[in-house]
Design a protein that fits this description.
The complex is a heterodimer of chains A (about 110) and B (about 110). Chain A has about 110 residues and is an all-beta fold. Helix content of chain A is about 0%, strand content about 55%. Classes of the chains: A mainly beta (about 110), B mainly beta (about 110).
Chain lengths: ~110, ~110
């Protein structure tokens, strides 16, 4: 099992450009999450999904969109990137019975110039 | 408003001694608590958890203590080893099975050989 994988690992964007981050999990988990990690801020939840075809806003959703068309994939989109979105992005997933013990991917480091 | 706080950004401990990492929370609805460990360039990994019905949970060298009246939890690592050098995040949830976690800002632990 690969667990949770994220694509790409690194990306540099110019302000106003768009991109999509892909998260894939092979554990048949129902719940998936996107977080961002910034210095001194910990992990903050952007959006999450409790099942295929469903998404919900987290703590810092502005400027991001998500889609969960397949159970194993969770996409995070930036339509018009801003320097404030420079961060490390982590995807996580969790399934029954341990709904709290989320499994994380290795992260995507995004720089917006 | 930071509902989960880790007031020590960093901590250095001699190898073989005890490491104590602290976490405070403000939301009295939090009922389930977790610790995650994160190495550079990797995603966080689950370490240990505790439910509010307990005041202590042990797993090998790792023990988590919960003081619900003080809204405080701590992670003890005994004895500390160089491989324990990492960033530690505490996280909280309103209950076991709730799909969302609130993370603290993290404490960087350095074990000095």
């Amino acid at each position: 099992n690969a667990g949770v994988t994220q694509t790409p690992k690194f990306r540099v964007l110019k302000t106003g450009q768009s991109m999509t981050l892909l998260c894939a999990q092979d554990m048949n988990h129902e719940y998936m999450y996107w977080y961002r990690q910034d210095p001194g801020m910990g992990l903050r939840l952007i959006h999450y999904s409790v099942g295929e075809g469903t998404t919900a806003k987290g703590e810092v959703p502005d400027g991001y969109n998500v889609s969960r068309l397949k159970k194993q994939n969770f996409l995070l989109g930036l339509e018009s990137a801003a320097p404030s979105q420079t961060s490390v992005y982590f995807c996580a997933s969790v399934g029954r019975p341990t709904y709290n013990e989320q499994f994380f991917g290795p992260g995507t480091r995004l720089t917006v110039l | 408003d930071q509902q989960v706080k880790q007031n020590s950004p960093s901590l250095s401990v001699q190898e073989g001694r005890i490491s104590i990492l602290n976490c405070d929370y403000t939301n009295s609805m939090f009922d389930y608590f977790l610790w995650y460990k994160k190495y550079p360039a990797e995603g966080p990994t689950f370490l240990i958890s505790i439910s509010s019905i307990k005041d202590k949970n042990e797993d090998g060298r790792f023990t988590v203590f919960l003081n619900k009246s003080a809204k405080h939890l701590s992670l003890h690592i005994v004895p500390s080893q160089p491989g324990d050098s990492a960033v530690y995040f505490c996280a909280a949830s309103p209950n076991f099975g709730n799909e969302k976690l609130t993370f603290g800002t993290g404490t960087r632990l350095t074990i000095i050989p």
